[in-house]
């Protein structure tokens, strides 16, 4: 049995799960090759809602409607190298505005389950749950 290295750090993130026609919105940050479910790291003592609304406005230039926010689940996965654990608290929410990548986002795309290999391990866990629920095709 292969021993897993000790976790060296925890990255606490919040993500927005926007699903349309069996696909989930993903974003590729400028300078990166990997797509992620939109969202980001908590700053200081921010709540999940504060982190979600700030990050989505910064990345996609839309306003999350706070009254529509609903939890999807929380996922954790170790990203190697470095044995960094990423915790991703996921929420659905309605929004106001037009989805437009900001300067920190190079590209947005709608991913189906077959695109699972193009996202990090923690996002893959979300993809698995969405597919099992019949929400991701």
TrEMBL record:
For this protein, the record's InterPro entries field holds: NUDIX_hydrolase-like_dom_sf, NUDIX_hydrolase_CS, NUDIX_hydrolase_dom
Which superkingdom is the protein from?
Answer: Bacteria
- Which PROSITE patterns does this entry report, sorted A to Z? NUDIX (PS51462), NUDIX_BOX (PS00893)
Q: Which residues form the signal peptide?
A: none
Keyword entries, A-Z: Hydrolase
**What are the residue boundaries of the Nudix hydrolase domain, all occurrences included?**
1-132
Q: What is this protein called in UniProt?
A: NUDIX domain-containing protein
Native species of this protein?
Nocardia callitridis
């Amino acid at each position: 049995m292969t021993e897993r290295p000790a976790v060296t750090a925890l990255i606490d993130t919040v993500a927005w799960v926007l699903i349309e026609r069996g696909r989930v919105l993903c974003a590729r940050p400028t300078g990166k090759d990997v797509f992620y479910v939109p969202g980001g790291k908590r700053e200081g003592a921010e709540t999940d809602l504060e982190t979600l609304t700030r990050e989505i406005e910064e990345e996609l230039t839309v306003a999350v409607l706070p009254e529509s926010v609903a939890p999807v689940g929380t996922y954790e996965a170790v990203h190697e190298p470095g044995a960094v654990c990423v915790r991703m608290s996921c929420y659905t929410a309605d929004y106001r505005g037009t989805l437009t990548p900001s300067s920190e986002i190079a590209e947005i795309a709608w991913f189906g389950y077959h695109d699972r290999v193009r996202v990090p391990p923690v996002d893959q866990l979300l993809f698995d749950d969405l597919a099992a629920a019949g929400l991701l095709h």
